[in-house]
Amino acid sequence: SIVKPGSHGGGHGAEAAAHHASVGMEWALIGIALTASIVGILVAVRIYKSSGAAQKNAERFGPIYTLLRNLYWVDEFYELIILRPFYAVSRFFRGFDRWIIDGIVNLSGIVTEVAGQLIKLFQTGFVRNYALMVLFGVVIILTYLISGS
User: Fold this and answer.
1) pLDDT of 92-115, one tens digit each?
2) What is the dihedral of CA 78, 83, 85, 88, to 10 degrees?
3) CB atoms within 10 A of CB 24
4) Where are the domains of the chain?
5) What is the secondary structure of 10-63 as a DSSP string?
6) Burial class of 58 by CB neighbour count within 10 A (0 to 12, 13 to 18, 19+)
7) Which among 1, 4, 17, 148 is placed 20 to 30 Å from 33, CA to CA?
8) pTM of the predicted model over 0.70
């Protein structure tokens, strides 16, 4: 071990730091935070319940009020810059997937189906049909050889 025998690797220091604040201090801080939040809520209720205070503030602060009321237009900006281009690209790739990718996959299935239907015409299971196919093959080969092509 790299820690020397008898040392505690700084464990006592960390333990002391964790316990340096007293419980009374914690309760005092909780009380201050709670009081501040209650006072803030009561002030806001009084302002917005009283007649015309909200309207007066809106008129007095004009553009700042509009900016804050619209939450800095973050949602509109996000929709315009992020969502609309993303949706446009998504629609393009949805069409590409549906018509190109799925089309290729479906085409291979159609080709296999048609080939199977054609082969089924010749694969009857009767030896006489197979002999007839061999005869047709020989005739085609002889015709090719005789014609000299």
Assistant:
1) 999 999 999 999 999 999 999 999
2) -160
3) 8
4) 8-66
5) THHHHHHHHT-S-HHHHHHHHHHHHHHHHHHHHHHHHHHHSTTHHHHHHHHHHH
6) middle
7) 17
8) no
